[in-house]
Structure formats: structure tokens, C-alpha cells
Amino acid sequence: VDLYDTTVAQISTLKLQGKIVICYFSAGSYENWRPDISAFPSSVIGKAMAGWAGEYWLDIRQLQILGPIMKNRMLLGVEKGCDGFDPDNVDEYTYTQKETNWPLNVTNQLAYNRLLADTAHSLGKLVALKNCQDLATTLLPWYDFAVVEQCAQYDECALSSPFINAGKAVFE
After folding, report:
1. Local structure of residue 49 (DSSP, 8 states)
2. What are the residue boundaries of the Glycoside-hydrolase family GH114 TIM-barrel domain, all occurrences included (predicted)?
3. Inter-residue long-range contacts of 157-165, CB under 8 Å, 24+ positions, other chains counted
């Protein structure tokens, strides 16, 4: 469910039905309609994401700025009763500097994704690796399950094998 658009009552109802509630938020992009937009300094906001109005890439190299912002998002999830998190847009390094504004590499992405997972776990919550399956082997120890979108369409489902082989769920 969406971290911001889902109420405490809705989450509570789902949990009463025995469901595990995973709360979605974008960790790799700034969305200009979210209530915490004032927390993002302009220095971390990059180019607009193609095809997503009001959404802009974040400079994930700036861990000291983004880390507390993402932790606050997760703390909101704790308050709302989320069992875990589905941070989106955590494959930014696969995009070009022309697309994002940042010269990102695998090392930057791994540091950011580990920070997100460590933060979720420090709060006692589950965390999903989303659409970053080419780093699945490396990130497997940090993540509890994976979420992939359109892996069949792009012939990428085999990239989730490390999770499956480790007995961790993969949701398409």
C-alpha cells in the first residue's frame, strides 16, 4: 500500500485480516506532491523522471541528507503500522547522467540500498529490493524479499534467482 495515501485505519483493517502490510514509498525520487517535500534541499533534486509528472531523480550519493529523510518516511510507516517497506526507484545507477543529472555507479547504488535496508531493519521492519535485480546477489543479505515489475516483459525474471534460491519471496 502507499505509505502516504493509506490511512492507519486501512492498515489496521488489513492487519486484522491477517495480512502483512508493506508500505510503498519512492526512495530514489522526489515526488512534488508528497507532504515531506520541504525536507529535500534543491542540491539533491535532479532531472525530471521521463514519463512521471512531478517526479525527479535524487542524488543518492548524498547519504547524509537522504538517510534521515528516508528514515523519517519509515518512522511514519512504523506509526501507521506498516510491517515493512517497498522503497522504489533504487536502480538509479542504471540510468545515464543525462537522464538523472548525477554520475552514479554501482558503488553509489549499493551504499544507498544498504542504507535503506539497514534503516528498515533497525526499526524492526521488512524491506523489499525493488527492480534492482541485477544487484540481487550482492544485496541478498540485506533484503527480506524482492519486488519486480514486468520481469517477464523484459526477460529479467532469472535475475531474481538468488532470492528464490535463498528461500526468499519474489513478487511480480
Report:
1. P
2. 1-172
3. 159/133, 159/134, 160/133, 160/136, 161/136, 162/136, 162/137, 163/129, 163/136
In a structure prediction context, what are the per-residue pLDDT tens digits for the chain, which is 172 residues long? 999 999 999 999 999 999 999 999 999 999 999 999 999 999 999 999 999 999 999 999 999 999 999 999 999 999 999 999 999 999 999 999 999 999 999 999 999 999 999 999 999 999 999 988 889 999 999 999 999 988 788 888 888 899 999 999 999 8
Q: What angle do CA 47, 48, 53 make, to 5 degrees?
A: 170
Domain layout of the chain by residue ranges: 8-166
Fold classified for 8-166:
TIM Barrel (3.20.20)
C-alpha cell, 46:
535532479
